[in-house]
Amino acid sequence: MLDSLDGTISLIAPAKINLALHVTGRRSDGYHLLDSLVVFARFGDRVSVKRSAADTFEMSGTFGSRLPDDEDNLVLQARNALRRRFPEQAIPVAIHLEKYLPIASGIGGGSSDAAATLRALAALWRVEADVAQLAEIGLPLGADVPMCLQGRPLVAKGIGEDIERLAAFPHLPMVLANSGVSISTPQVFAVLERRDNPPLPEMPDLFTVGDVCTYLAETGNHLFSAAEKLTPAIGDTMNALQNTTPRLVRMSGSGGTCFAIYDSDADAEAAAAKLKQSNPDWFVVATNSVMEGD
């Protein structure tokens, strides 16, 4: 968290990476039950908040012009939800969202923006709300908001609200890539062929990149086939990443962002440079995972 001289509080809203995502069932209300191993990248959007005479909201960044700036934006929904819970402390605020993550791309950009907004405003307004209380406020905004409030390696179950943080998890060098596709998560779930898959296998202690990749080989992303059916271009992204000789390639969430894991940050940087050169219009970034204690 950055607190500047003018009172601005600024937070990174990191990309959420589903290393593995199993669909294990479906509730009577239509929500799907998941079992997912999740990490967060050091790369993401940025949310900044400060006191103001009246509420304002502005956006910038690579993808800022592609989002609504009205009440459909999850940042404003998060502001309004926290204000309803703490009306006496909720003074007017100026919010600035720097949007660097592609829209509707399977890496939790909107949910992470909402989570960062809740955390930043809770600090600015000095409300007494811990992560669990913020998660309760954020869950109606999206099932991914509670896990994005954690921002550290975790296993998420249920619809995403049942969270177990992982105290020990290795540093993962990775590349995120998206060829420019946006995918509707409800549409992906609608064309799933199976919704009663087994949960993630029991997780051993994971100390190295090799340990993680060995474990992930026993898992999958059960949304991949449905997403690729809707948007075949995801296969092109997967193939392009595979050509950079990573340890593992997979789609995150409901797509269409894919990720590749490498042995070192230098390998990830070299792979990203190669991918950008051959696909200059793609979203490509070399990053690594945030670990507990960072």
From TrEMBL:
All copies of domain GHMP kinase C-terminal, residue ranges: 217-278
PANTHER family documented for this protein: 4-DIPHOSPHOCYTIDYL-2-C-METHYL-D-ERYTHRITOL KINASE, CHLOROPLASTIC (PTHR43527)
Catalytic activity: 4-CDP-2-C-methyl-D-erythritol + ATP = 4-CDP-2-C-methyl-D-erythritol 2-phosphate + ADP + H(+)
Record carries keyword Flavoprotein: no
Positions that bind ATP: P102, I103, A104, S105, G106, I107, G108, G109, G110, S111, S112
Keyword Cell division: no
The protein's name: 4-diphosphocytidyl-2-C-methyl-D-erythritol kinase
Domain GHMP kinase N-terminal: 73-151
Active site: residue positions: K16, D144
EC number: 2.7.1.148
UniProt function note: Catalyzes the phosphorylation of the position 2 hydroxy group of 4-diphosphocytidyl-2C-methyl-D-erythritol.
Pathway(s) where this gene product acts: Isoprenoid biosynthesis; isopentenyl diphosphate biosynthesis via DXP pathway; isopentenyl diphosphate from 1-deoxy-D-xylulose 5-phosphate: step 3/6
GO molecular function list: 4-(cytidine 5'-diphospho)-2-C-methyl-D-erythritol kinase activity; ATP binding
Designated gene of the protein: ispE
